Structures are given as structure tokens and as C-alpha cells.
Amino acid sequence: MAPPTLLYCVGATKAGTTWLYRYLHDHPECAMPAVKEAHYWDTFDADKREKQLVAYRVRLREMREAKADATEAGRDWQVGNMDRRINEMKALIAALESDRADDSAYAAWLMDGRDGAKVVADITPNYATLSDDDLARMRDLSPATKFLYLIRDPLDRLWSHIRMQARRQRQPHEQYEKKSNNILYRILNRGQETHILERGDYPKIIRKLRRVIPQERLLIQFAEDLFTPEGLARVCAFLGIAPVKPEVARAANEGPEVVMLDKLRPRALGLLNAHYEWVARNVGPLPQRWQDNLARA
User: Fold this and answer.
1) What pLDDT, on a 0 to 100 scale, did the predictor assign at position 55?
2) Which domains, from first to last, does the chain contain?
3) How much is the pTM?
4) pLDDT value of residue 258
């Protein structure tokens, strides 16, 4: 039996990657790990690795506590589910802690126990920031690797990413809406929070992916089209699986809506104008949402 396709979904941040994970997790031809974002390839640096390990150890402790609660309540089905998640998290932690002379521990974490599946996946948006050499190492882990890069309207993606940052950083005395607009102000006027812009630099990231990944193993997909039957069929055809009706019809993790200040919107669009135009020239016809914002720019 042929090995499953190993899909790397490398972003973009706030462009539907969580929705895609849930769709593939529920798909009968896929076998997804319990952890959406493995952060294996972006934690070769010792400091980054330790920071990620700390986060995973916290999650492992939470899983064990949830299992204990389920055991006490007699929810056997949940105990079994938590056992699987705990074992996968322990294996992922071991892979991150390995010496990484090769990537066998990571490959085993992804592939072991998934016999018969057509697709397994590591959906980690931060991988889009990796170097050509790192992407090539990912590419060469298996002859059946494929890469998917979801791209969302640049202004919508930027604002969603900013709001996520504001939620994570907000102190009890701070207003969510004001903090979100303050982050945008710092991006536009002080050149701060550069990582937010880096995650949505479509021209830079797509050029890099096309340099490293063979054309037949790379798909650039508009996030807005992912939720349509045609867009979903395109992704499924790329992965070699049959389309199935999604259980969740809309994107996840959007968070509460916050209004961008009118005085900041034109400058944000101006900052992103080159991205709209580059994608139109080099990827394909823009979805209507992109066209509307481009016209405003």
C-alpha cells in the first residue's frame, strides 16, 4: 500500500487553517494527529524549542487532568479519547526533544498508527517563515509530501491577526477594540509588530515556495474559495481524496468583531496595495472580497 500523502499547510495565519484541520480530521480518508500545529520544523533553535516544549507540557498536564475528571465521572468514551491525545502529545514532545540528526521521530509521530489513510497533515502556519533549506528538508522527508498555502484578503487577514494579538496581550484594564487599533497604529506609524506583516507577505512567501516546491506538489488556495464547493473540491483533488460535506460551514477562531478606525483603514490598504496587485498578476483572478478592498485602495 502506498504511503499516505504528507500535507504541510504552511499558513497563512488567520486564513482558515483551523477550519481545514477540522475538515481533514473529520474526513474518512484522512488520519490527523491530535495536535494541529506540531512546530517541529520551526523549533530547531534551542530557545524556540524550549518555549514550545513548555507550552506542550502545560497542555499535557491539562489533558491528564481532563482524563482524571472523565475517569471519576465514568465517561469511558472520553477516557479513551484522552488516552489517545496524551500518547500523541508525549510522542510529539519526544520528537521535539530528540537530537534531530534525522527526522525519524517526527515522521513516526505523524505516520505511526495511520495505516490505510490517504492523507496525514502538519498544519503549522509559522512554517511559511522558514528558509529555503528548511522547506527543502520538509519536502524531502517523504516522496509524497505536498504543500498548501491558504491566502486570505490581505486587509481582512491583517486585521484578524491584530485582533488575535490583542486578545492574547490584553490586560484586564485594557479595552479590546482600543488595543487592536493601537497595534495597527504601531504597525503603520512605528514599524512595530513586524511579525504580523511577515505572516501575510504573500509575494515573498509564494516566491519562496515556488522556488523550493515542485509545481505539482504545491497549491496556493484563496481562503475565501475554500468554503465553496468548487474551492473545496480543488483542495481535495490536490490531496487525492473525495470531497465530503463539511460539518462546520464557516471559519473558526474569528473572535469578536472589532471596528477598525476609519482614519487607519486607508493607510492599511495603501500598505497592502502591492500585495493585492502581485497576487492578481501571479496567482489568479481575485475573489470578490479582494476586488472590493483593492478598489478602495
Assistant:
1) 97
2) 5-44+100-261 (3.40.50.300)
3) 0.94
4) 87
**Prior bond of 34 cis (ω within 30°):** no
Could you count the other beta carbons within 10 Å of the beta carbon of residue 73?
10
**Residue reference for cell 464547493:** 229
Compute how many other C-beta atoms are within 10 angstroms of the C-beta atom of residue 285.
10
Give CA separation, 179 vs 44, 140, 266, 267, 280, in Å: 33, 42, 19, 18, 32
Q: Is 2 exposed, middle or buried (0-12, 13-18, 19+ CB in 10 A)?
A: exposed
C-alpha cell at 287: 475573489
- Spatial contact of 60 and 93, defined as CB atoms under 8 Å apart: yes
Cα 41 to Cα 124: distance, rounded to the nearest angstrom: 9
CA 164 centroid distance within chain: 14
Length of the chain (residues)? 297
